Amino acid sequence: MRTLALNVLLALAGSVPPVLGAVYLAWHLDTADHRAQLQTTARSVIGQTEEIYRSAAAALRSMAATDYTPCSEQHIQHMRRFMVSSPITVGVAYVHDGMFQCSAFGPFSEQVDEGAPDVTRPDGIGIRLDVRSRIAPRVNVISLAFGDHAILIDPSLLLGYAPAPGISVTLLENGRVIAARNPDADIDVTALAAREGSGTANGVNYAVVRQDGWTVIVTEPAVGLMAYIHNERAVLLGLALIITACSGGIIF
Asked: Which CATH number fits domain 14-52+162-227: 3.30.450, 1.10.760, 3.30.70, 3.90.220?
């Protein structure tokens, strides 16, 4: 009996190297698969960002081309029609000399300073962040301004659908954070923005995609090798027994 037990232990010990090799390969492939999924999500998000932005930019240029008397009933109705017909718009306003004069809801009782844009894109559209809308005062929106008009939109719309739990999505424009979903305070997205493609850094799987000045970064916590072994320990023990049995080390 003692000899049989010793043979079993030796056989199991002999199965360790191939099992460890299989474990490392499985972990490596699993990590690569997670990175590929993050890359797919980042491409989808940046496509959504471009679509929403193009729609807003076209609307701003269309309003800039109108010749309504500013803040007249016809002008306000025109802004209102656009706001109602646009699924992305929280508000539309007319701006003159840096002051909001009226919106799709009517003239302002007092003038409000538009403020300087946080980002100005190459096409001339200015972006202001963390704008408080009178329509939705509890939600910070962003303002896209061109000429004498500004459109207010919910920044989360630029990020598309909500990602899976544990995944963070950040949109930047030339290094400035425009919108984020499920942000992780421990992740320095500005440092990741300097990277290319996908990878793992500081315990984080990431994917970086750029297009037309936009940068989308998608991240998730990485699973290290030891954590992967711990999570899959039951499967790995079974694999070790199978390898040992197939090698002839254990005779039943």
From this structure: 3.30.450
